[in-house]
Amino acid sequence: MKDVFEISGAIRSMRGDIPVYRVENEFASLEFSTYGAQVLSWTPKNQKNVLWLSEKAVFQHGKPIRGGIPICWPWFGPVKTPSHGPARVAEWTPIGMAASSNGMTVVEMVYETPDLLACLTLRFGKTLVIQLDTTNLTGDLYSVSEAMHAYFAVSDIANASVSGLDGRSFFNQLTQKREIQSGDVVFSSETDRIYDDCNDLIHLHDKGWNRTIVLERFNSNSCVVWNPWTEKAKRMEDFGDEEYKSMLCLETAHAARDARTLKASETLSFGMRVAIV
Ligand code: TA6
To answer: Is 105:30 a contact under the CB 8 Å cutoff?
Structure first.
C-alpha cells in the first residue's frame, strides 16, 4: 500500500487503492486525490458538479483516472511513455491545506523527479483556481509541455458550444493539419484540437443547463479541445460508450507551439481560474 496521508480538514476515503479527499467550505465542495494531484469534482453551492468523471473510471495505481482534472506533465501527449507524462499516475506529497481569508480553501501538493520539482496549488470556493509551478533542478535548459486536462460536465454535447477561439489557429490532431477556427466551436464528431496561439477568455456555453463555464488561463497560450465522440469512446475501457455526450475537455496547456523551455533553476508557473455564470 502506498503512503496514505491524513490531511486535516479533509475526509479521506479509498476508491480501489487510491486515496480520495473530500473538503467542504461555505461556497463549494471539492474532491481530490494525492494520486496525480487530481481534482475529481468541484461542486459550488446550488450548482451541479462542474467536472465530469467517467462511471467507468479506474482507481488503480499505475492507471490514469478518467475525469476531473488530470495533470499532464512534464510532457503532453504520447511523445514519451507514459502518454501525458508520469505525474498523473504518481503519488504527490501533500504540503498542507488551509482556509484563506476570502473563504476559499487552499491545498498544495508537490511531486519531484530527478530533474524537476512540480508544485500544484488548488484554491476553491465560488471559483476553482489551479496553479502548477515547475522548477528546473538541472543546470541546463529543460523543455516541458503540460496541460491541466480538465473534463467539464455538460447537459449534452449537442447543447454545448465554445466561444473565444474565433479566428485562432489550431493543430487538428485528427488530420495532423493546421486550420483556423471560424466562429464558436460546436460538436458533431470527434474533436481533438490544440489551439496554441490563444490567450483569450474561453466560455463553454451549455444551453441545456443554462450555464456558462468561464475558463481564464494565465501564462498559457494554448488550449486543447477534446471530445472522443462515438468510435473512440467505444475503444476506451474506462469510458462509457454514450458518455461522450456528457463531457467536454477544455485543457489549459503549454502544448504544441506553446511548449516551453526552462533555464537552469528557473520556475515556470501557469494556471487557470474556472467560474460559473
Ligand atoms: O487532450 C486530448 C488528448 O491528447 C486526446 O488525443 C486523447 O488521447 C485524450 O488526450 C485522452 O488521453 P488519455 O491518455 O487520457 O486517454
So the answer is: yes
Ligand 1-lining residues (CB < 6 angstroms): 64, 77, 83-84, 149, 173, 192, 224, 226, 249, 251
**Mean pLDDT, rounded, for 47-63:** 98
Dihedral pair phi/psi, residue 46, rounded to 5°: 65, 20
Residue 70, preceding bond cis, omega within 30 degrees?
no
Nearest partner of 125 among 20, 41, 8, 43, judged by Cα: 43
Number of the ligand 1 atom closest to the C-alpha atom of 83:
14
Half-sphere exposure of 120 (CA within 13 A, CB side): 31
Q: Would you say residue 5 has pLDDT above 60?
A: yes
The protein residue whose alpha carbon is closest to atom 8 in ligand 1 is 77
Q: Find the catalytic residue in 149, 205, 242, 243.
A: 149
Q: Provide the grid cell at 277.
A: 455564470
Query: The pTM is what?
Result: 0.97
Q: What is the largest CA-CA distance in the chain?
A: 52
90-122: pLDDT as tens digits: 999 999 999 988 899 999 999 999 999 999 999
> Exposed, middle or buried by CB within 10 Å (0-12, 13-18, 19+), for 86?
middle
> Residue 2 above 90 pLDDT?
no
pLDDT class for 89, splitting at 50, 70, 90? very high
CA of 52 to the centre of ligand 1 (A): 15
Q: Grade residue 1 by pLDDT with cuts at 50, 70 and 90.
A: very low
Q: Which helix (H) or strand (E) holds 137?
A: none
Q: How far is the CA of 71 from the centre of ligand 1 (A)?
A: 12
Q: What is the DSSP letter of 231?
A: H
- Mutate which of 38, 53, 76, 83 for ligand 1? The one with the most ligand atoms within 8 Å of its CB, which is 83
